[in-house]
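Re: the pair you flagged

First of the two:
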Amino acid sequence: MMTLAQPLWLLLLLPLAWLVWRRWPARDITLRLPQADDHFPRSTWRTLARRGLPLLRWAAIGVLVVAMARPQRKWEQEKVKADAVDIVMALDISPSMLSRDFDPDRLAVAKKVAIDFVEKRPYDRIGLVAFSAEAFTQCPLTTDRRVVQSFIQELQVGRLEDGTAIGMGLATAVNRLKDSESRSKVIILLTDGENNAGYIPPMKAAEMAGSLGMRVYTVGIGTEGIVLSPAQRLPDGSYSFAPRHMTFDTELLREIAGATNGKFYRAYSENDLEGIYEQIDQLEKTRIEVTTVSRTTDYFHWFVGLSAFLLLLEILGRWGLFRTITP
């Protein structure tokens, strides 16, 4: 970034501009000879160039004023030392996540809020686990936020067998974090139903997480009661919808969070979910130490050299090529 160390010196350019305007164009005293007009042109390139010589002098003075303002360029380099948090987000992608008590559905809102949460964590390693009746790692731990956000956006219902295996999702997240050397290891588990599949009990997975020093924040999304939800999968892979009575195992999610010194949250709307992620963001702060190193390079000597060059051109022109004979 180019700046001026002493910009007030530029105020001298104002009277300089006024002097140039008052004194230009300078006119030489000439003697008109009518008989010679047809043989000698009134103006030649030499006479015109000589009239422009004073401009070199004024330009040299102007450039010198700029040099006095000390143009310089600043570089700033930041060295960041972050005690980052390792976070695995375990998201439910069972068919019930397409329920339309959220706009347009639960999964779309969960993905949107999760992407915003990832954007606010530039120094943390974040991974992604998806689960329904089974679980898999969608994205391993990485500091590349764009990659994580892209994988979140690609989550779809129907990739796994239908069902909700909360224990499988949590156990897969624990497996992603078990080799982490970070002081803070966090799992955010989001689901909208009851555990009804999988061969690992949810509380067994919670015990594993707690023994490894991991905190689990459980988030229950959706409303209970009659909700327009997927009722049947069609041959083309899409779902037909019908009003269904939805239930939720609040107590299980509360116990999972309690066993790991985490916290349970309930989201009935998109605003609730955004507030939950904001609270988690505040609870799991990343300690950052930033050292800023500044370096400045001055360029005034270039302007001084240019000013001297312009004055030299004016002197050579006036006493050399465009020299006139005076009595």
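Second of the two:
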Amino acid sequence: MMIVTVTLNPALDQQISLERLVPGTIQWYSQGAFLPGGKGVNVSRLLTSLGVENRALGIAAGFTGREILRLLEKEGCKTDFVLLEQGTSRINVKLRTPQGEETALNGAGPQIPQEAVGQLLGKLAGLTGEDLVVLSGSLPQGLPEIAYPQLLETVRRTGARLVADMAGDALLAALPYHPYLIKPNEEELEEIFSLEGPLTVLEVKEYAGQLQRMGARNVVVSLGAKGALLLEEGGRCLFCHGVRGKAVSTVGAGDSLVAGFLYGLGLHGTLEGALKWGVAAGAATAFQEDLATGDQVKARFPAVGNPYIL
């Protein structure tokens, strides 16, 4: 089994720590850390750290795109991006204070020509039904309108299992292609169904069922510190409580859940085992400033309780 992640809107993330954010003033900060960003990129980073073979695909542009790829390869990730010479991949600035406040300034991606989309589709053409394609993150504004349906159709034709971690209309558009797994969070459920939260676990189960009836095979809903709910293709619903601990940052926790889920699926061959590893990975990342490492995920796993049937 080969796992391929696709990140259409990668970013160069700069993390900056401030004593406090004071709008309208000039503030100095120590050298901020630069990290490769984007939801699919995060999945590849953690899978690589867990020792799972995978390839990170996507479209990157300019000097920021080259730096994203350099940083990924430095971590041992195998990359196969389409690199555009025109434009630049976005830079996202993450501002954090000791009080736990987070402010994110997210940039826009480059204009993407249809030719680049064709090159990316060509990289997916050799996949088989044994493979998994993780399609996650936002769609760049500069992406041709036809590109996303083409990507979904290409994955369908290969027979590869699709894992979709998108929001809103992008997730809904993937459902007719019967993705093997989707992973909305509670807020995304509320947005899709025009709900006012917080939702009860039984309400989460109900709306996960609606997404399943719309085409998804398996649905995992990440619920932050509360844990995660899994609605399986056969109708069984499992809930796994979260791991106790102090949350430092939620950035990348959902992506870590996806990576941990796929790691657990390969390790145990069951969705129940996958769910436990997903919860462990999400917690490991939430309890620190950056994406968790594979060793940190493994250290959290013993604290995860067994899922129970709802």
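The chain has a mean pLDDT of 95.

-B.
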